[in-house]
Amino acid sequence: MASSVNPTVRRRRLGQELRRLRELKGMTAEEVAERLLVSQSKISRLENGRRSISQRDVRDLCGVYEVDDHRIVDSLMQMAKDSRQQGWWHAFGDIPYSVYIGLETDAASLRVYEPQVVPGLLQTRQYAEALIAGALPETGTTDIDKRVSVRLRRQDRIKESDHPLRLWVVIDEAALRRLVGGKNLMREQLEHLVELSQLPHVTVQVLPFEMGAHPGINGQYAILEFPDASDSSVVYIEGVTSDLYLEKANDVQKYSVMYEHLRAQALNVDQTRAFIADIAKDYAR
Fold it and tell me: Which helix (H) or strand (E) holds 35?
């Protein structure tokens, strides 16, 4: 379940507020960096929430922005303190996509396009193990187990009874045809996918090969939306060595429109279930 104090979201909200104060002061990030004798990149990382921020950083920035209201300063200082707490995922050690996990943990809805594999929130343990072992051949058993445990823990978001994550996924047919871990494993994974697709807050659509070229041809992405109106939506694009987070309204809008085209071109919910069930039967032969 989402933590009452999510450090990733706290950093993000704090960064947005610091950016607002800077802009009210009419200063550029470069001017602030010069005043504090730090790099401009540090100011940018603090404002986009990708870097942990200390109470000292907040104090120094409030001084530059001439924030006189002690209540505002105290509130920002508390947010900085909260942002340095650890989320549930930190118990698993160093997770390369921990920023994304923090956002996903607090999200109200998630739209995913996945061209290659079954999305992580819908994977079985066996599929996740085989997939991670194949994708990271030099990774040891202990690290694979850790990654699988994190993936399964993330799935609690769609199992919550009160406020489950609203999940919408569009999956390319290639993800269903790609033989991960053997035929029996794939059959079980696809049957699991059909089962989860019947949850009221989970929608699954398949984009069949026959649709040809489509707006998602360039690859996987996810759009996260949050319950707090002050938290802007985020487009997440996973990379090999680094991930990309897009938060500008124009970027989010473009990806959202692209997702609507994908949904329109994909099979509807009932057609999708029948399509997946047929492929599962093929694996049973």
Answer: helix 29-36
